[in-house]
Amino acid sequence: MDALLDTPTPNATGAPRLHVHPVHPATPDAQWWRTAVVYQVYPRSFADSDGDGVGDLPGITARLGHLVDLGVDAVWLSPFYRSPQVDGGYDVADYRAIDPVFGTLDDFDAMLGRAHSLGLRVIIDLVPNHTSDEHAWFREALAAAPGSPARGRYVFRPGRGATGELPPNNWHSIFGGPAWTRTTDPDGTPGEWYLHLFDTRQPDLDWGNPEVHAEFESVLRFWLDRGVDGFRVDVAHGLVKAEGLPDWDGVTSMVEGSRSDGSGPMFDQEGVHEIYRTWRRVLDTYPGERILVAEAWIDALPRIARYVRDDEMHQAFNFAFLTTPWDANRLRQSVLDSLAASDAVGAPTTWVLSNHDVVRHTARLGLTEAGSLPKGIGAGEEQPDTELGLRRARAATLLMLALPGVSYLYQGEELGLPEHTTMPDEARQDPAWFRTGGAETGRDGCRVPLPWEAGAPAHGFSPSGRSWLPQPASFARHALDAQRGVAGSTYELYRQALGLRRHLALGAGSLDCVDLEGTAPSEAVVLRNGELVVLTAFGPDPVVLPEGCDVLLASGSLATDERGRLLLPPDTTAWVLPAARHLPRARGAQG
Ligand code: GLC
Ligand code: MG
After folding, report:
1. Under the GO molecular function aspect, what terms does this record hold (predicted)?
2. Which of 95, 280, 294, 337 is geometrically suited to a Cys-Cys bond with 219, CB 3.0 to 4.6 A?
C-alpha cells in the first residue's frame, strides 16, 4: 500500500495520470455470499396483495420479477413471523408461524419456491435477543413463580430499594426509558422486574440458559429445512450480557451504545461468539451455502471482524461505512479500513447505505451536516435538500457498487425514494417515538410503502389504496413505472450499475487506491476495481478525467471544458475505463 507502483512518464497532453496502490486482492471463484448484492425487503411496506394496507408474502411473490429485472442476487426479508407488531415484527410471538397479516406458511413456501426458480437466494431475519411479550414462554414466565424454570428463560431480577421498587440496574432501553419493567404477581402485589433492551413488550431472553440455545437451534433447522439460504441475525452483539448485569453510565442506543469500544455490559460480550460457532456448525450440515449475517452495531471494525472469523458468521453489516459523513478522506479511509479488517479474518466486506432503521441516504446526504445520522426527521427539524441529497445518494451508491464484497440495498433506494420527513405525528408507529415522548422522531420515515405505479391507488402499493403509513405526495414521481425505461432515472442507474457489476465481476474484484494527478485527496475518492476506475467528486471543483477514458456509467451529467477534457462535477460518481497509456500496471496487487 505504501509503495508507489510506477513512475509516470512525461505527460505531453496535460491530462491527469493515475498512480495506483494495491489494497485488496481479487477473489475469483468466490462463493456467492462473498460477492452478492442483497436487496432488503421490509414486508409491511413492499407490496400489499389483499388490500389491508399492509404488505404481505403474496405481494412479495408477485413482485419478485422486479428484483430480477433490477439485477440483485439475493433478498433479505425483515420478520414476517406471528407477532403483535409492536416493533414492526421484531417482536416475535411464534418463530415457526407466519403472522396472518403477512399470510400463511404455504404463502412463504410459494414465495421461496418462486424466488429460487428465479435464481434469487432468500435470507430471513432471526430475532434471538428477545421475544414478544405474547410469546408462549413469556406468558408462562409471568404466570410462574420467581426462581422457576419458566422465568429462567428470561432475565427476571428482584428490584433494588427497600421494597424492590427500583430497577435492578441503571440500564436504559434503546427505545428510551428504563430497560426494566416490573411485573405484578398473581395476587396483585408488585413482583420482579424483567430486562428489555428494546420495548417493554420485547423481553430479553437469557442466553445463559441451555433451553434457549436448544430452541434457537431448532428454529434454525425449521427454516433451513424449508430451504432458506440464510439468516440475518438481529442484535447479534446483544445476546449475552456481562456477568452480574453491572450498572453502566454510557448511552444505550443502537449506534452510540457501541461507540465506547464495545465495552458496555449489554453488547459485544465474548460469550456471543460460541453461539455463532454452534450455529455455523448447524448450517454447515445443510447442502448449499447457507449463511449467517450479523447485525451488530459496533463501531470498531476489528471488533466486528470477530463475528466473521471462519468458524462463525459469514457476513456482518458494515455500519461504519454507513455512518461515515460525506467527506472524501473519511470515506476513502472507511473503505480501506473495512477491507483491511475483513481481509484480516478472510471474510468478505459488506457495504450498506440504507436500511429500515436509519434515515434514507437520500435524506442524510442532503442535510447541512451531510451524512450525519439523525434519529428520524420530523416536520419541525431541519429538512434535507432533496435534490442535493438525491444527487449525492446516487453518487454514494455508484461508489458502493464498484467495491468488492457484498452490497446491501434497501427497498426503494433503487427509486431514489426520499425519507418521509413531514409525516403527521398521529401516523407514527415506531416504539422509539412513543418511548421517548417524541424526542426521537423514529424510523417510520424510511418505512413508508413503496410506490409502484404513479397513478394507481396508494401508488400501486395496495389494490384498496390503503397504506399503513401515509405516502408523501413526492412518491408519485418516484414510482417505478415513472422511471422504468427513462434514461438517467435512478432506477435505470441502479439497473445499469448492477448489470455492469455482474458483467465485470466487481464483487470478486481487487481494489486499488488511486492518486489522480492534479486532484487533491480531499476533492475525490478514486479507486480501481480490476480495470474499472471509480471516481467520486466531492467539490468544490469538478475533477478532470484522464484523457481518452471511456465513461461506462455516471451518476450525473458530465461536462467538458474548453480544452475538450471531461469534467466530473461535485457530488457525482463515474465508472471509467482509462485509456491504457494513463494507467501504470499495478505490480503485486493480486498477491
Ligand atoms: C434491530 C432491528 C430493529 C429492531 C431492533 C429490535 O436493530 O433492525 O428494527 O427494532 O433490532 O429487534
Ligand atoms: Mg396485506
Report:
1. hydrolase activity
2. 95
